[in-house]
Amino acid sequence: MRKSVVDLSVNRVLGSGDIVSVGRLAQNSQGVFFQYDVDYVSRFGNLSPFRLKADTRLQKGPREPHHGLHGVFSDSLPDGWGLLLQDRWFRRQGVSLDHVTQMDRLALVGMTGIGALQYAEPLNSDRTEGVVQLGDLGIAAQEIDSGRDSIRLDQLVEVGSSGGARPKAHVYADNNDLRSVRLVPRQGDAGWIVKFTTDRGALRHEEGLCEAAILSLAAKAMLKPVEWTLVGAPSTSGASQWLAVKRFDLTSTGRLHVATASGLLDADFRMPSLDYADLIQCARELCQSPARGQLMYRRAVFNLLVCNQDDHAKNHSFLQNDGGRWDLSPAYDLTFSPHPYNEHSTAFHGHGDRPPVEVLERLGERASYASPEKSRAVIRDIIEVVSTFEQVAKDLGVSKPIRKEIAKRLDAQCAHYASQI
Hints:
By secondary structure, the chain is an alpha+beta fold. The protein is built from 14 helices and 16 strands.
C-alpha cells in the first residue's frame, strides 16, 4: 500500500524569480504542523499574519475548516473541478480516496498552484513540454466533467490547481492568441486561466460571455478587476468562445504570494462564514490603507447589484510582495450567480438578502466614508454602471433570451436601491 506524504518542504518563488525556503510541513497522528525557517523569518514577511506567528515555533493547523491544514497552505489546494481531477488521478494510481490526506494533495499540487508557494517533493513531477492546442484541453475537460475518462488527465491535473466548480486550465502564452498554449512557462510568457463551459448550469455555454459582461461593468465601476479576453472555442465544444482571465500572481520574472480571505481568516468557503464588515476591516488593516477598505466596499455593493451571490471566502484575495507589503488582488469571479434562496455567501452586516440601505451606510462607515451621503454616492454610481448590462452583454454576443433574463434581475435590484437613495 502506498504511504501518505508526512513531510513537505515549502518554498516561495519571489517576484524576482529567486526561490527561497519558507519552512516545513509535517503530519503525525496529532495533526499537521508547520515551522518557519529562521532565515525566512528574518528576511521576509509573515505569509498569514492573522493565523501564523512570525517565529520558528512549531504551529499546529486548526482542525477546521481546512481539515487540519493551515489556511495559507490550504489556499494552494484546488476545490470543485481541481479536486475532481485529483481524485481521478489518485484512483488511476490505485489509491483509495479514503487514504488520501491534505498533505498528499499538496504534494500533487507541487509547483503548479496559484501564488508563490511550492511544495516538494511533488507526487506528479512530469511536465508537458511544448505546445498544446487549447481546444484539445477544453474537449478533454468536458469529457472528464461528464464522467468519462480522458487520455489527457495528467495534463489536466497539471493545469487544474485552482478553485471553482467549472472546468478550467492554467496555461501560458507569449501573446494574447491562446489557441496554442504551453503548460510549462517560458521566460516572458503571460499566465492565463481559461474557463471552459459545459451543459450544466442555467447559462450553459454562455457562462464565459456573461462573466465577461460583468467584468466589463466592474472595470467601469472602478473595482480593478482581473484582465480578461475571449478565446474562440471549437464547434464541437458547444461554445462560441471561452473566457480567459490573466493571472495576477505572476510578475515578469517571478510570483506574488496570494492569500484568500478563507485562508487568512480560517473562514469556510463552502458555507456562509464571512461578513463584508470583516472584509473591509481586513483590507484596511492588512493593506494599511483606508482606500483599500473603500475599494472592498465598492466590490460589496457591486456584488449586491449584479446578483453575484457566490461571493464566498475564496473569492476575495490579497497579494503580498517580496517586501512583505499587502494589497487587494484584482477582483475576480465576478458574474451573475444568484443563490436559490437569494442569500449571499458573504453577509452585509448580518444580512444575506437585500440589506437595507441603512446597513450599506454602516458598511460605508466601516470603510471610512465620512457621511452616509458618501456611501449613497457609491451606490448611485454603481447602479448607473450596472444598468448598462444589457447593451454590454449584447455587444459581447450574449443571446437575447439570456441577456434579457439577467437584465430583468439586475434592473429590479438596481430599482430597489435607487428608490431608497
